[in-house]
Design brief:
Blueprint (H helix, E strand, L loop, with lengths): L3 E5 L3 H16 L3 E5 L6 H5 L5 E4 L4 H5 L3 E4 L3 H13 L3 E4 L8 H13 L4 E2 L8 H7 L6 E8 L5 H6 L11 E7 H7 L5 H9 L7 E6 L6 E9 L2 E9 L1 E2 L2 E5 L1 H12 L7
Helix pairs in contact: 1-10, 4-5, 8-9
Length: 269
């Protein structure tokens, strides 16, 4: 059972995860360390439970000897911190799953985890159906298409880079079409879902992705089509965007918290 939990980063997702887990962590007397590059504001500090401490020193990660580390600081933090965490024997829950589109990094992390008997945990995040996909992925003829439909507010910097004003987008705009590997690399803040589906299923290069900016939407929609000799799976999810980060779905933090809660449960589903 987890007695020490470390969290790398303290943005919107990490804050929501800590809120979702606070009662459970307090019940089991779990010590929590947050490692963050910059100091917390007085307002942030005042909302922390008493069993949580904060450090700006990454070396505290190794000295803390965490049982589980939650990476919640963006794709660059995966390569920067996760290998050493795994080699210390800690399990690591990676939230920036798009980083694993880098095949060299993905293979390296798996080797380190196997060598040091640690685990890499990946949350479902904003989507569902991963259990179905995992069960059929080794069968010939499996095809996976993922479509991301998000409001204009989720793509403001990307639209600006294309020379487009948000108000000029009146109809659904196809922003990208290609592989999950390219999608997750090109849009690291928006397309963790593509990487998650690819890892659970038929791989980064075979998983097809379409990205649409839709001015008529207020929610983040995820359309998943899986076809195989076993049949067909069609899923459509409409997720409320995170109040503090419209690029991400609000439910993502709850999915991450659910993975942690499993570590305290005798029943695994």
């Amino acid at each position: 059972m987890i007695k020490r939990l470390a969290i790398i980063g303290y943005g919107a997702i990490a804050k929501d995860v800590l809120i979702a887990l606070s009662a459970l962590l307090e019940k089991h007397a779990v010590e929590v360390l947050i490692v963050k590059r910059s100091a917390l504001s007085e307002a942030e500090q005042s909302t922390l439970p008493p069993f949580v401490r904060v450090s700006q020193d990454p070396n505290q990660l190794w000295e803390f000897k965490a049982d589980l580390v939650i990476e919640a600081a963006g794709q660059t933090s995966v390569a920067q911190f996760v290998p050493a965490c795994l080699s210390s024997g800690a399990d690591v829950l990676i939230t920036s799953i798009g980083a694993l589109a880098n095949s060299d990094l993905y293979s390296s992390l798996r080797r380190v985890a196997e060598q040091f008997n640690s685990r890499i945990l990946l949350p479902a995040g904003a989507i569902a159906g991963l259990d179905y996909l995992q069960s059929i992925k080794d069968t010939e003829g499996v095809q996976v298409l993922y479509e991301s439909h998000k409001p204009v507010s989720a793509w403001l910097p990307e639209l600006k880079a294309l020379g487009l004003n948000a108000d000029s987008v009146k109809e659904p705009l196809l922003l990208f079409e290609g592989s999950a590997a390219e999608a997750a690399t090109r849009y690291p803040q928006n397309l963790n879902v593509a990487a998650t589906l690819a890892i659970a299923g038929i791989g980064m290069d075979k998983t097809r992705v379409r990205v649409l900016v839709n001015p008529s939407l207020s929610q983040n929609q995820h359309h998943i089509l899986v076809t195989s000799p076993f049949g067909e799976m069609r899923l459509q999810l409409s997720n409320t965007p995170s109040p503090s980060n419209p690029k991400s779905s609000w439910v993502v933090a709850q999915s991450i918290a659910a993975v942690v809660k499993k570590e305290f449960s005798a029943l695994q589903l």
